[in-house]
Design goal:
two-stranded antiparallel ribbon, about 300 residues, 7-stranded parallel β-sheet, about 35% helix, 10 helices, 9 strands, alpha/beta, TIM Barrel, about 15% strand
Length: about 300
């Protein structure tokens, strides 16, 4: 089934969670003090060109706090807006399957035990940070809770993956998706629109490619330039074109019409930290961007999967 409404012509995460869990559901981003093979020297020490020093957004947990301290602090912030709800704990910063099995097991199970209202676990990671032991551990956890693995892809185009220093190719990503789905583990994929050298057609090709895979969710971001990233240093020396808000909205709408109407849309924008953002400034206008997407889809009678 889909979870469209009169206002939203696509499957919003909020509507899906309300249907599945009969409750408002909040994600609480925890920091498990992970690193990444693209930063620790296994693949590279540079990281992806857009990656920040923290590896997460403004509202993620701090590695200097225990998981319980992180959870309690962020939960208090959530409760100021919403009194009642359930929680999904989310290991967000860097690559959260990149570590020894004892560490992974300890952190995952500890996270699930932080509060009686935790109903699931999200794990953000790279497609090249898996082995058979990790798949087995995830399968075990998947039997006990609502588990989702979030994989950064960014683009289907190997040429761009190399340019942005991802350190893996498309075949590695696809192989990981297939292995996770064989174990019935939910997969959410991150993509970025506006990467250097990519045309709108290339961005639409990424949506078409993902539509052929057995994935359960998608996060769509725009490329933005923030301080203390490799792409900032590149942009500072030689600025290159970035998408306008109008172009971004147009591309996202076309992507939504291309993807299967069973896929859940977890995000339609990025979430840059205002004090670190260089360009584009419009990327801070999260609600305006989403409202424009909704308005144009209603106006033109467009729905997720309609193309």
């Amino acid at each position: 089934m889909n979870y469209f409404t009169e206002e939203k012509h696509y499957n919003t995460l909020n509507n899906y969670y309300r249907y599945r869990f009969n409750s408002k559901v909040f994600k609480i981003a925890l920091n498990g003090d992970f690193t990444c093979p693209n930063r620790d020297g296994k693949i590279s020490t540079l990281g992806c060109i857009f990656c920040t020093d923290s590896g997460s957004g403004e509202f993620g947990g701090s590695k200097h706090e225990t998981l319980q301290e992180q959870f309690d602090r962020i939960k208090k912030i959530m409760e100021k807006k919403w009194q009642n709800g359930k929680y999904i704990v989310y290991f967000q910063s860097f690559s959260n399957t990149y570590g020894p099995i004892p560490k992974l097991r300890k952190l995952y199970y500890e996270a699930l035990s932080l509060d009686k209202d935790i109903i699931g676990l999200n794990i953000g990671t790279r497609p090249d940070c898996f082995n058979d032991e990790i798949y087995d551990l995830l399968s075990e956890i998947n039997e006990k809770t609502y588990l989702t693995v979030e994989l950064g892809l960014q683009t289907m185009h190997d040429k761009t993956l190399k340019l942005i220093n991802r350190g893996h190719d498309l075949s590695t990503f696809e192989n990981t998706v297939n292995k996770l789905r064989k174990r019935n583990i939910n997969v959410v994929v991150h993509i970025i629109n506006g990467l250097p050298g990519e045309t709108p057609d290339m961005m639409l090709d990424t949506a078409r490619y993902l539509n052929k895979l057995d994935i359960q969710g998608i996060k769509i971001h725009m490329l933005y330039i923030v301080k203390n990233t490799p792409i900032y240093r590149i942009y500072e020396k030689k600025p290159f074109p970035l998408l306008s808000m109008k172009d971004y909205v147009d591309i996202v709408i076309k992507q939504l019409t291309l993807i299967n109407d069973q896929i859940i849309v977890h995000r339609l924008t990025g979430d840059p930290e205002a004090k670190a953002l260089i360009e584009p400034k419009w990327s801070l206008k999260k609600f305006i961007i989403v409202n424009e997407i909704d308005k144009l889809m209603r106006k033109n009678n467009l729905y997720q999967g309609s193309n």
